[in-house]
Design a protein that fits this description.
The chain is α+β, with helices and mostly antiparallel strands. About 30% of the residues lie in helices and about 25% in strands.
């Protein structure tokens, strides 16, 4: 070992260093562009704004969920993640307006659940629900209120 270099080690050459710096500059440029001009649709080169910011002391906090009635006679909250129904909560939240106009879009949630969990009870009815919690002076004021935004009878 001489000058901090072990025998057999290869040093990164000038071209390798330039390529790495270039890739870093392009990545940083894409992040800046996405943060200034784009929305969450540009992820990973845009902001994930649903995680940003803080809530005022006197504000309403909304939470969107999907409730399902199953062929076993139970009512469950649909797990909105890739492992659950194959669709993430953010994908539902970004399309709330479209789902309210066309509740048949919820069919893909039931289909995803059935495909991923063939041994579990099937969904027969889905409801898109918005729960609203009111904050007063930074504290929860009463139980959340629920509003059914859309209902869909699942096709078999």
């Amino acid at each position: 070992m001489t000058d901090g270099v072990r025998t057999g080690d290869v040093r990164l050459g000038r071209i390798g260093k330039c390529v790495r710096v270039g890739v870093a500059v392009v990545g940083i440029g894409l992040l800046i562009n996405g943060s200034v001009r784009a929305s969450d649709d540009a992820w990973p080169f845009g902001p994930m704004s649903q995680y940003a910011g803080s809530v005022a002391d006197d504000a309403s906090i909304t939470f969107t969920r999907i409730s399902a009635q199953t062929d076993a006679g139970t009512t469950v909250d649909v797990p909105l993640n890739i492992e659950g129904a194959g669709v993430a909560r953010a994908e539902i939240e970004v399309r709330i307006g479209e789902i309210v106009k066309d509740p048949s879009l919820l069919q893909s949630v039931a289909d995803g659940w059935a495909r991923k969990h063939p041994d579990r009870p099937k969904y027969v009815k889905l409801e898109l629900i918005r729960d609203t919690t009111q904050l007063v002076k930074g504290r929860v004021e009463g139980p959340p209120t629920s509003e059914v935004l859309a209902t869909w009878e699942v096709r078999k």
